[in-house]
Write a structure and sequence with these properties.
The complex is a heterodimer. Chain A has a domain of 37 residues. Helix content of chain A is 31%, strand content 27%. A 6-stranded mixed beta sheet of chain A has the order 5-6-7-3-8-9, sandwiched between helices. In chain A, strands 2-1-4 form a 3-stranded antiparallel beta sheet, covered by helices on one side. Chain A has a 3-stranded antiparallel beta sheet with strand order 11-10-12, covered by helices on one side. In chain A, a hairpin with a 2-residue loop joins strand 8 and strand 9. In chain A, helix 3 packs across helix 4. Chain B has one domain. Chain B is mainly alpha-helical. In chain B, helix 2 packs antiparallel against helix 3, helix 3 runs antiparallel to helix 9 and helix 6 runs antiparallel to helix 9. Chain B is elongated. Chain B is 71% helix and 0% strand. Classes of the chains: A alpha/beta, B mainly alpha. At the A-B interface, helix 2 and helix 3 of A face helix 1 and helix 4 of B.
């Protein structure tokens, strides 16, 4: 079925905590096999959104379905199809990596092999170590391993690589690419725009509880946000001009001081979006 | 079936992690053994009981320590353990898996049974072979021991699960639970002879299950000459069964009403 229903569907999602509005009408869909990144500053509503979809929080208003089920009412069969990597964990960890994964594999009807998962998160050398003796980054990999041991259809990753060194992050990206290749649908929140750009098919930007933009990663902010800027110095004064024809501008300027042509990075676009905080036209 | 299979799997996991946690092993598993040893050594020159039927300190304190063991392995262990698991995110993780709550409880209660049996066995072995306490020989006494143990440890475990919601955080669990357990032990005939307490204090203690569990244990291990100093002059095993069972039901109801993997809006 190529025209199957979205794995995640959210319409006008609202959440208030005692008068404070955390989510103010968020809508998006995630299709089967897609990796969707939720971006946004701290406190913007990313975690509230993901926790509502995981069944950890009740929504105040709006509609949500996850794998065809209202996440506020999901049963054990529904949970068996999810993989959840929470933002933080602080368990006492008096079991080894292998013991923990073997035990959790038993919860699921059709789990991955423990050896395969240990290898996938790169903990072969630590599999007989007690989890409490692992470093923060290694414990995070155990969290990820526990999230994928049940062979989930939908994987939630809430800031999965916080505390990873660059090499561990690269390895993690490869792991996610493999899961994606196997058809896993992924909802990811992250602070790292390079991570969103590397892993995500599409992204949504949340700020102040509202979805201010949504689209393919390379289309976020719309075409206007990607217009290059030509910068130069004239009589010691910095000047700049936004233009869709930077070549023509440079040709006109000749040979000024400090000439640069800058294409806005994803980070520039994101920061502009978040600082203005207004929904762009294509975010409905 | 899955619920039972996972419950069984949880028991193994719980017992393994229990014995890897040094502080819980000391304060819930070995504590009654340490107390029995201290009392037996400290009062080794004294004898206890009515004239003509005197027994050693070890024999006198053994039933109380067995009862305290039920309370510690059950109530104290469960309440602090589960409050800690709430605080450190263990339960939140379970909430996102297909693990049934019932399997989790089976694992907890199974762990209490396994550690409670080992603890009672250790107390009996030390009493018998280190302090030369004569243990009962008639099967009837051991049958009483068996049902008091099973009813007591189950009730203590369920009450522990029910009380695990009381501490506001995992860190405060010890501070909230240990005073409750300690006061109960002092007023229920564990450290102080129950017959020596004023009647009003005995009446207060009689509301709670530990007094009855200790009384049941005394009926098994103390000579019949001691029965006369019990409240009402009898062991009152029917009372032991009824009051403990009422607390079991109370614990089950509170657990059923209050236990959640997570508080959704905390």
């Amino acid at each position: 079925m190529t025209t199957s229903a979205p794995v995640v569907s959210v319409r006008d999602l609202r959440k208030t905590y005692g008068g404070v509005t955390a989510l103010d009408g968020v809508s998006f869909d995630i299709e089967r096999g897609e990796t969707f990144a939720l971006l946004g500053p701290n406190g913007a509503g990313k975690s509230t959104t993901i926790e509502i979809l995981e069944g950890y929080r009740d929504r105040t208003g709006g509609e949500a379905t996850v794998l065809g089920v209202d996440p506020g009412k999901g049963g054990l069969d529904w949970k068996a199809k999810l993989g959840i990597v929470l933002q933080s964990s602080g368990e006492s960890g008096n079991v080894t990596v292998r013991e923990q994964l073997t035990h959790f594999a038993g919860y699921y009807p059709n789990p991955r092999s423990v050896d395969e998962v240990i290898a996938a998160v790169g903990l072969e050398d630590k599999q007989k170590t007690l989890i409490r003796k692992l470093s923060g980054g290694q414990r995070r990999r155990v969290d990820v391993a526990l999230g994928i041991i049940g062979k989930p259809e939908l994987l939630f990753l809430d800031e999965p690589t916080t505390g990873f060194d660059p090499e561990a992050r690269r390895q993690f990206w490869e792991l996610i690419a493999r899961l994606k290749h196997e058809g896993t649908t992924i909802l990811l929140t992250t602070h790292y725009l390079d991570e969103a750009a590397h892993l995500g098919d599409r992204a949504g930007v949340i700020a102040g509880g509202r979805l201010i933009d949504i689209g393919d990663i390379d289309e976020l902010g719309g075409p206007d946000a990607r217009v290059p800027v030509v910068r130069w110095r004239e009589n010691g004064v910095p000047r700049e001009e936004r233009t869709t024809t930077p070549g023509a501008v440079v040709a006109r300027l000749g040979e000024p001081d400090d000439l640069q042509v800058i294409r806005p990075s994803l980070e520039d676009i994101y920061l502009t979006l978040v600082s203005t905080g207004t929904p762009s036209e294509d975010a409905s | 079936m899955t619920t039972l299979r996972l419950g069984y799997s949880r028991i193994g996991y719980e017992v393994k992690t229990y014995f890897r946690q040094g502080d819980s092993v000391f304060f819930t598993f070995l504590f009654p053994v340490v107390m029995l040893t201290i009392f037996s050594v400290a009062f080794s020159e004294q004898s206890f009981g009515p004239p003509g039927a005197e027994i050693s300190a070890a024999a006198y304190y053994l039933p109380g320590m067995l009862a305290a063991g039920l309370l510690l392995s059950g109530l104290q262990n469960m309440a602090i353990d589960i409050a800690g698991e709430k605080g450190d995110g263990t339960l939140k993780r379970f909430a996102g898996t297909p693990l049934p709550v019932l399997s989790y409880f089976i694992g907890k209660i199974g762990q209490v049974f396994v550690t409670g049996i080992l603890q009672a066995a250790l107390l009996l072995l030390i009493a018998r072979f280190v302090f030369q306490v004569d243990l009962p020989t008639e099967p009837g006494a051991w049958l009483t021991f068996a049902w008091v143990f099973v009813l007591g440890v189950t009730t203590a475990a369920i009450l522990g699960i029910a009380l695990s919601g009381l501490p506001r955080s995992g860190k405060s669990a010890t501070a909230v639970i240990i005073p409750i357990v300690l006061v109960l032990q002092f007023i229920s005939g564990v450290y102080l002879g129950f017959s020596q307490l004023p009647t009003w204090l005995q009446n207060i203690a009689s509301v709670f299950p530990l007094k009855w569990m200790a009384q049941g244990m005394r009926s098994v291990f103390l000579p019949s000459d001691f029965e006369a100093v019990e409240p009402g002059g009898e062991w009152n095993l029917a009372g032991v069964a009824i009051v403990t069972a009422i607390w079991l039901v109370v614990g089950l109801i509170v657990t059923r009403v209050t236990f959640r993997w997570i508080r959704k809006d905390s």
